[in-house]
Amino acid sequence: MHTHTHVPSRRDFFRTALGGALAGASVLELAFHRAAWARAQAPAAGPQLFDIEKVADGVYCALARAQAMINSNAAIFVNSQDVLVVDAHSKPSAAAALIAQIKKEVTPKPVRLVVNSHFHWDHMQGNSAYKAAGKVDIVASEPTKQLMQQEAEKRLKAALEQVPQQIAALRSRAAKATSAGEKAFCAEQIRQMEAYQAEMKSFSLELPSIAFAKSHIIKDRAHDLHVEFHGRAHTAGDVIVFCPQKRVVATGDMIHGFTPYIADGFPRIWPKTIDSVGGRAFEQILPGHGPVHHNRERMIHMRNYIEELTARVEEGKRAGTPLAELQKAITVASLKSLQSNGYQKFLEANLYKYFPNFGPATPLQTNVNTNIEEVYKNLERA
Ligand SMILES: [Zn+2]
Ligand SMILES: [Zn+2]
User: Fold this and answer.
1) pTM of the predicted structure, to 2 decimals
2) Ligand 2 center to residue 360 CA distance, Å?
3) Is the CB of residue 144 less than 8 Å from the CB of residue 121?
């Protein structure tokens, strides 16, 4: 049940970019990955994809810059002998670029552990670059491994099938554009989408080598790292990486700076899962997208938004209110959680920054409407 138009719109683009719609497949060619690795290390590697921010001693966050096909952030934990990285972006060349950037800016120690916080394409399609760079274990929850097996290749195929349509839409937008800036923006988006398309034709799925049920604990001289499953949330398999000594947690898409993506989510359980994570002693959050959180305020806002929206949709659905009516009734202004201490503005600023196609012309209500639809569909999930 889609309420949006079939003409590729900014909203379709947004949904695809953020979305579940991805993951793909064919046979991995090591030569290709070596080439991607070499390209990423070469001076002409293209525009920088990440900004690495120090969060605590031995803890860094690689903040993904905006791209047509979104990359996740990565959390970087420097251990005594090696490095653990949380999340692997949307494509091997992005992961290879980060490996090179870590060497240059953070440490010469090798990345020996990668955690996939969940199964979405923008967090794991770069796994194979870590394999190509050296010996590595990839860690995830059992549900995440299973979802990767079931969904990754199917979703990538579906997403790649949409790319020509998205490029055509950008071309027609460029043709109508009145400013040089907009034309250049469209040209750059097209360039990025074509590069993605070309690279992902030879994508090979790299599954986790370690899959666990509740937790996987790494004890290192530098610190302990607890990879933990606290319950279903954004997907059936989200994990966090908690470091008790540095009082930080990496949260994937369970807690971040965008409106949530709920199509694969569990709206009634998600807030409780965040509460369980909140029982850990941390001060800073390294999210899957958006800026580092230096306190818990935005975590609480996101939790409250999901809870409030779910309660409103549940009430309406029980009363037999059609989805389209709920989307009219549940406005941004009427959601207390969004009105709490600048949360609406915080979300808007991040969306405009990270989804250049989703500019101020697209109000936050568009995302709220998408969330209402997702919650409406997934309300009964437990
Ligand atoms: Zn996700
Ligand atoms: Zn994501």
Assistant:
1) 0.88
2) 21
3) no
Ligand nearest to the CA of 264: 1
- Contacts of residue 108, defined as CB under 8 A and 6 or more positions apart, other chains included, come to none
**Domains of the chain: residue spans and CATH:** 10-145+205-378 (3.60.15.10)
Measured CA to CA, the distance from residue 371 to residue 330 in angstroms comes to: 11
Q: What is the DSSP string of 119-152?
A: S-HHHHTTHHHHHHHS--EEEEEHHHHHHHHHHH
- What's the 354 CA to ligand 2 centre distance in angstroms? 12
Asked if residues 49 and 43 have their Cβ atoms less than 8 Å apart, the reply is no
333, amino acid identity: A
Distance 52 CA to ligand 2 centre (A): 18
Ligand 2 mean position, distance from CA 125 (Å): 11
Can you tell me the distance from the alpha carbon of 284 to that of 301, in angstroms, rounded to the nearest whole number? 15
Centre of ligand 1 from the C-alpha of residue 183, in Å: 30
For residue range 22-60, list pLDDT tens digits in order: 223 223 333 344 444 444 444 445 689 999 999 999 999
What is residue 333's DSSP assignment? G
Give the Cα separation of 234 and 222 in Å (integer). Answer: 30
Report the distance separating Cα 47 and Cα 1, nearest Å: 39
Nearest to 167 by CA among 199, 185, 193: 193
Query: Encoding tokens for residue 299?
Result: 């975590």
The backbone torsions φ and ψ at residue 73, rounded to the nearest 5 degrees and listed phi first, read -70, 170
| Per-residue model confidence as pLDDT tens digits over 293-344 | 999 999 999 999 999 999 999 999 999 999 999 999 999 999 999 999 999 9
